[in-house]
Design goal:
Blueprint (H helix, E strand, L loop, with lengths): L1 H18 L4 H16 L1 H32 L4 H17 L4 H18 L2 H39 L1
Helix pairs in contact: 1-2, 1-6, 2-3, 2-6, 3-6, 4-5, 5-6
């Protein structure tokens, strides 16, 4: 029964990673870590540790790598701060897709105000879109490491 609940929580978590509507990576890590704790023993605790460490590493990497990527593209951190705030507002204004729409729209508008030309604002917006995709891929990689540890332990057990 615990495996079924864990698999269900993993599926919900992976959907969250891809949709970015809720903290899917944390859900995956928590589900696998709780399963490992429930199983106990060396194998269970190892799985729990792998799940937690993989998601912590992914969370750190997604912020560090995307910040570097955006800085290299000339997108200022103030633009990202304003866009993040707009994304939070968008989450509540337009359910499901509002966070994404408001974030990208804010990047475009802030960069347009800063550069005064669409020709300069649009590349920064495309860069922000690619960075958003990069964060999803990094979080998905961390979640898949946690899922892989669970699957291996489940088969071995």
């Amino acid at each position: 029964m615990s495996e079924l609940l864990t698999i269900l929580a993993i599926a919900v978590g992976l959907a969250g990673v891809v949709s970015q509507i809720f903290p899917g990576g944390s859900i995956v890590a928590a589900a696998v870590a709780i399963w490992g704790w429930y199983q106990g023993g060396t194998l269970g605790w190892t799985v729990a540790l792998v799940a937690i460490v993989s998601m912590v590493v992914a969370m750190v990497l997604k912020y560090v790598l995307t910040a570097r990527y955006l800085e290299r593209g000339g997108v200022k951190s103030s633009t990202l701060t304003i866009a993040a705030l707009a994304g939070v507002v968008g989450f509540f204004v337009v359910p499901v897709i509002g966070m994404f729409l408001f974030f990208i729209g804010a990047v475009f508008l802030v960069e347009l105000a800063r550069s005064r030309t669409v020709a300069r604002a649009w590349p920064a917006t495309k860069r922000a879109l690619k960075a958003a995709g990069l964060t999803i891929l990094i979080e998905l990689a961390g979640a898949m490491v946690a899922v892989g540890a669970f699957v291996v332990a489940w088969v071995v057990r």
